[in-house]
């Protein structure tokens, strides 16, 4: 499982570097004991290994989407909180006897629909905010395992004391309103929250889980040991391949490489709501994250939704960019990333499909490349890739005109990314 869903598990590895340094060769039985220690007490008590805050004892506040509101509810039969729509919150109170630095873990169920991997804000005392990609999976077709819970790292190295409130908040982009009143939400249910002393070895994932292991960097591989942040929507997420994309392939193929996918399906570059690329970049990605590159998807959603193209500014100041337009959003992302993380920015295009609007976006991207010196992985103008459109080979790679399937990511797209990035990092 760790390897199959490598990106989001690797997100856990990044967020838990101290853990990885201290866990050595901890076996699966040790990991299981860490996750479910014999000293674990009831809600509100502190054990030697873990502090557990029960889902049954949370307080909940409503969220709203398009004028329709809903408050989460506790499902006593399954021991979970469900119905966490956009902006709804579930609040856990840190019990007596707590004062220290902890890693925050949360029990999360499975989802009805694969939408993205950044599904919750974790907010401490209405101030400190944490967002990490999470390795959730789809429930079976009958949804019999919807409440089979997994344990996932939500925040690392958080200073906490008795009485602090930790809120889990549903993010924008996962809630849909039908008929102006019917709510569908792809955000899974949550269970107990656990606090472990920072640096503890904790098993993550569904079932017993596994303790992530850190590989040694291969000095002969330019991609080995790199931390790459991905900003995008369904194509980057791997929505047609069960959350598996070229980013996951890169993790599988290169030792000690971390790929963090900040992705929500259906979202746009153009900054129109809290789920846009611009908004999520500014709110979700930690400002102190050390990354070797940010890779940004040239979103097909902007073309399909008819977002305004805008014009390229003569300025390099963010306040001069209209981020409600496609070009303005791209300039904002480039400038913000360079200023905040000081890292290279690389955009990538999709492969060719019938769209004058997207073709215009590709042309605009190359003009921005000339201005900003950014990297571009251009699959749209890749002659070898374009040549197979309409063939059986193409059909074997693509789920539709914009989304690869697992084979397409692994055998068709990922090699192009690996070639480009290897050359890019070698030159750098």
Commentary on this structure:
The chain is built from 12 helices and 21 strands. The protein starts with 5 loop residues before the first helix and ends with a helix. The strands form 6 sheets. The protein has a 5-stranded antiparallel β-sheet with strand order 1-15-8-11-16, with helices on one face. It has a 5-stranded antiparallel β-sheet with strand order 2-7-12-9-10, with no helix packed on it. The longest helix has 22 residues, at 406-427. A hairpin with a 2-residue loop joins β3 (63-65) and β4. The protein has helices at 6-15, 17-23, 28-35, 234-237, 246-253, 277-284, 300-304, 326-340, 356-372, 383-386, 392-397, 406-427, and strands at 51-53, 59-61, 63-65, 68-70, 73-75, 80-82, 89-93, 99-108, 120-124, 128-130, 150-161, 165-170, 175-178, 182-185, 190-197, 205-206, 227-232, 258-263, 293-297, 345-348, 375-377. The chain has 2 domains: 35-206, Galactose-binding domain-like (Jelly Rolls), CATH 2.60.120.260; 227-427, Rossmann fold (3-Layer(aba) Sandwich). It is α+β, with helices and mostly antiparallel strands. It is globular and about 60 Å long.
């Amino acid at each position: 499982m760790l390897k199959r869903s490598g990106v989001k598990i690797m997100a856990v590895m990044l967020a838990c570097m101290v853990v990885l340094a201290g866990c050595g060769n901890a076996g699966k039985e040790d990991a299981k004991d860490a996750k479910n220690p014999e000293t674990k007490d009831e809600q509100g008590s502190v054990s030697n290994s873990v502090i557990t805050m029960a889902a049954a004892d949370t307080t909940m506040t409503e969220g709203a989407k398009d004028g329709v509101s809903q408050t989460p509810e506790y499902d006593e039969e399954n021991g979970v909180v469900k119905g966490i729509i956009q902006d709804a919150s579930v609040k856990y109170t840190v019990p007596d006897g707590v004062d220290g630095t902890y890693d925050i873990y949360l029990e999360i169920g499975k989802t009805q629909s694969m939408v993205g991997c950044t599904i919750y804000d974790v907010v401490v005392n209405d101030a400190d905010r944490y967002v990490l990609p999470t390795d959730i999976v789809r429930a079976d077709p009958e949804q019999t395992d919807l409440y089979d819970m997994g344990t996932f790292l939500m925040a690392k190295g958080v200073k906490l004391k008795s009485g602090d409130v930790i809120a889990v908040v549903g993010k924008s982009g996962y809630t849909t309103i039908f008929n102006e009143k019917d709510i569908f939400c792809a955000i899974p249910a949550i269970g107990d929250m656990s606090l472990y002393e920072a640096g503890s070895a904790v098993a993550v994932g569904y079932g017993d889980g596994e303790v992530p292991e850190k590989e040694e960097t291969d000095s002969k591989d330019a991609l080995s040991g790199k931390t790459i942040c991905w900003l995008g929507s369904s194509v980057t997420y791997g929505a047609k391949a069960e959350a598996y994309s070229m980013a996951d392939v890169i993790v599988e193929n290169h030792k000690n490489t971390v790929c963090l996918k900040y992705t929500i399906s259906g979202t746009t570059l153009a900054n129109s709501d809290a789920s846009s690329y611009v908004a999520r970049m500014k709110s979700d990605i930690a400002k102190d994250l050390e990354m070797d590159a940010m890779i940004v998807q040239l979103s097909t959603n902007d073309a399909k939704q008819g977002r305004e193209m805008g014009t390229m500014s003569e300025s390099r100041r963010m306040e001069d960019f209209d981020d409600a337009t496609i070009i303005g959003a791209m300039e904002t992302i480039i400038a913000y990333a360079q200023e905040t993380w000081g890292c290279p920015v690389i955009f990538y295009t999709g492969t060719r499909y019938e769209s004058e609007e997207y073709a215009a976006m590709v042309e605009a991207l190359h003009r921005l490349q000339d201005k900003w010196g950014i990297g571009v992985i251009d699959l749209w103008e890749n002659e070898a890739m374009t040549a197979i459109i309409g063939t059986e080979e193409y059909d074997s790679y693509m789920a539709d005109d914009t989304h690869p399937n697992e084979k397409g990511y692994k055998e068709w797209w990922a090699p192009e990314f690996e070639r480009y990035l290897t050359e890019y990092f070698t030159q750098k």
